UniProtKB/TrEMBL annotation:
This is Virginiamycin B lyase. The keyword 4Fe-4S does not apply. The lineage of its organism: Bacteria, Pseudomonadati, Pseudomonadota, Alphaproteobacteria, Rhodobacterales. Residues 1-24 form the signal peptide. PANTHER family: VIRGINIAMYCIN B LYASE. It comes from Paralimibaculum aggregatum.
Length: 414
């Protein structure tokens, strides 16, 4: 818990290190305090880009990020300022779509505040693992009891994602310290695998193939990587498109490695034997692709984050189709997963962050606001299904929530 003196120290230190921060928010009593405390972790642009909240909802939202109970006077000043200047509004309003399905959200708020929990994945024993990117944390939830454990990762790792390997270990991407990491749940031992050169600096998203090889993207380095857990060998290859910023990764049934381009209008296809990378150009300038997934027929589904669309690519024919997302061109689709016979993704550029379902058979949409406790405030950045395919694992990184989504049959629409 932060004491009053600690909070005051954060306020002073942050104000000194962010001399231009006062230019960003509206004038008013409490502005300097808000700027100093909030920018200790994130820019004030996140406040300006919110949909606005009541004072009670601002209280809950800030409580997911920092414990202000040690200084009630400061907390009141912050809440008064936020409620006065950023009340509920229609800024970045989503366009919900009703439909026939009912879904259920089951949520857990992780213990350590401000960690930006993300990328939940299920292990064979039913546990749900996540990483807390901003606090170098690896965590596990027992969904049956709600019990949670957190484990410290090497300082500065800034883990971006986590996968459960064939060996039962939790493998994470050390996005900031240029490593891939292995956490042994039985012993707590952590093994780090360094990148092969200085140019390979930011492991991002990873997936295991059927042979146990771990493939991963390096967004800022413009590369794709390969880690052999048996030998510890790490190899990287550059994307053929300069500035393509490889992001989401998925493995096809035939072993082909598919990678999304977050900086260009393309998908990348990598031959796992030769590590040769080829580019699939996508039609429109302005297209960027955060993530992709592959259905049982080998069709590649991808989010056009730059233009607010859902895309489909058939590797057998080369056919490409796109559909406009319900909330429009600025909706910024982000995470995506094929689940329950449909394509699911989220609209991260609107508020609330919407979970969207697209039925490929009828080409129709349905969507739901993703809760973050009693508010709608987080962002979903990656989602995957449970091992049995019966649920979808999501998160809200802005409020440190992990969630499980199930489809309920025969109930009223929600």
């Amino acid at each position: 818990m932060m004491t009053r003196n600690t909070l005051r120290s954060v306020l002073l230190a942050t104000a000194l290190s962010h001399p231009a921060a006062a230019l960003a928010l509206p004038d008013g009593e409490g502005r300097e305090t808000v700027e100093a405390v909030c920018t200790a972790c994130h820019g004030v642009n996140l406040i300006e880009r919110s949909s606005g909240y009541s004072r009670d909802d601002w209280r809950f939202l800030t409580s997911t990020m920092i414990d202000l109970s040690g200084d009630p006077e400061m907390e009141d000043g912050i809440l008064d300022y936020l409620a006065e200047n950023f009340p509920p509004g229609d800024n970045r309003e989503a366009t919900p779509v009703s439909g026939p399905l009912t879904i259920r959200f089951e949520e857990w708020m992780v213990p350590t505040l401000g960690q930006r929990s993300r990328d939940p994945v299920e292990s064979p024993d039913g546990g749900i693992w996540w990483v807390g990117q901003w606090k170098d944390i690896l965590g596990r939830i027992d969904p049956e009891t709600g019990a949670m454990e957190e484990f410290d990762l090497p300082a500065g790792a800034r883990p971006h994602s986590v996968n459960i390997g064939p060996d039962g270990a939790a493998w994470y991407t050390g996005n900031r310290n240029a490593t891939m990491g292995r956490f042994d749940p039985a012993t707590g031992e952590i093994t780090e695998y360094s990148m092969p050169d200085e140019a390979s600096r930011d492991p991002h998203t990873a997936e295991f193939d059927a042979d146990g090889i771990l493939w991963f993207s390096l967004q800022g380095s413009n590369m794709i990587g390969r880690l052999d857990p048996e030998t510890g060998e790490v190899r990287t290859i550059a994307s053929p498109r300069e500035g393509s910023r490889p992001y989401g990764v998925k493995i096809g049934a035939n072993g082909t490695v598919w990678v999304a381009c977050n900086g260009a209008n393309c998908l990348l296809r990598l031959d796992p034997e030769t590590m040769e990378v080829s580019e699939i150009p996508l039609p429109d300038a302005g297209t960027t692709v955060r993530r992709l997934d592959i259905d049982e027929d080998g069709i590649i589904w991808w989010v056009n984050s730059g233009l607010g669309r859902l895309g489909r690519y058939d590797p057998a024919t080369g056919d490409i189709q796109e559909w406009a997302s319900p909330s429009g061109p600025d909706s910024h689709p982000y995470a995506i997963a094929v689940f329950d016979g449909a394509v699911w993704y989220n609209e991260s550029g609107v508020r609330p962050d919407m979970l969207v379902r697209f039925d490929p058979q009828t080409e129709t949409f349905q969507s739901w606001p993703i809760p973050s406790g009693p508010v709608y405030a987080g962002i979903l950045r990656h989602m995957r299904t449970t091992l049995d395919g019966e649920a979808l694992l999501i998160h809200q990184s802005g409020t440190n929530h992990i969630a499980r989504v199930t489809v309920e049959r025969g109930g009223p629409t929600q």
